[in-house]
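Troubleshooting log. The previous structure file for this entry was overwritten by mistake, so regenerating from the original sequence record. Sequence copied from the archived sheet and checked twice against the printout by T.R.
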Amino acid sequence: MIVRVQHLRPIPTFLHPISKSIPQCVHFHRQYASKAAIPPPTPFVPDVQTFLTLMGRGLSQHAPKIPSWEALFSLKSADLRELGIDPARTRKYLLQCRQKFREGRFGVGGDLQEVANGVAELRVVEQSIPQGSAGPTRIATATTSPGTRKIVVNVPPGSATPNVPLGEAKQVKHMKVIGAYTIKGPHIQPLKGTRGSAATLAVKEGLWEVKRGRKIDGGERRQAEVGAKRRAEERKMMKV
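Regenerated output below.
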């Protein structure tokens, strides 16, 4: 029996630059990933307790188990399990929320900059429309002056205007103006005496929670059986 020794063919010369750059790319990716893995806190989400409160599903009860903001965004699923965060679906949900925050996909209030003790104040202001901009008309309407539009902005507590010039103020996401001056948006509380032109948004349990699906009639596999039994009971009651 003759055994043939197979020799590995050398890398083609045109692939040499690529093969040399691969270790450098991997090293750069690891360095970049380690720096980008932990996002900075925001005014609306300044600490671990607030983050877990916003995400809901009872995550706030685990806040004492996570020592720091850095730990919140660096612990793996096995580490969370050792800390006593159970069941597995709770850890999975926490990791999903963490990734969304890392990518900047915030819920309502995530873009707010003026926040005091977990409460942000919103007000309606009239902003000039830049020359030549597309979108809202520059003519006067029943609720706006010519060349202006009304937007919802975040202001310091007790202030009627933002800290920046009105021309640079940004519209708060998820909010809009209804009618002449009424703020409409999720989870806001209108301020008394402002007739809806000012409101507050506060951190509360489950504000950013992704709701779980509900099983109807016992779930997909038992829907036909449970539905048939319910209809039979209804027919029986009608005969009585």
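Residues 16-36 form the longest helix (21 residues). Archived copy saved in two places this time.
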